[in-house]
Amino acid sequence: MKYEHHLFVCTNQKSEVGRDVVKALKKEIKKQGLSKKLNRALPTGCLDECKHCKKGCGAALIVYPEGAIYGDVQPDDAPAIVREHLLHGRVVSKLLLD
């Protein structure tokens, strides 16, 4: 099976919220019926993006193949990311890292 997107979420110890973001993304992907088109949200080690986060308290998230890097992602951002970026192909600009 070929997936359209891969999501990598920082779940290192500095970003404890990362695990909650992974859970929220998985839930929203399933809710939107995208499980067969998307590789699930994959927890990963440090993405070295923390230094770029605006608040420094959320998780970093990279969406491939676009290479869009979101920062300070909170669990409640999952619906917008899944709906806008993954379902409709529109990057959620307010969450993008500079």
Automatic annotation (TrEMBL):
CDD domains membership: TRX_Fd_family
UniProt-listed InterPro entries: Thioredoxin-like_sf
Protein's UniProt name: (2Fe-2S) ferredoxin domain-containing protein
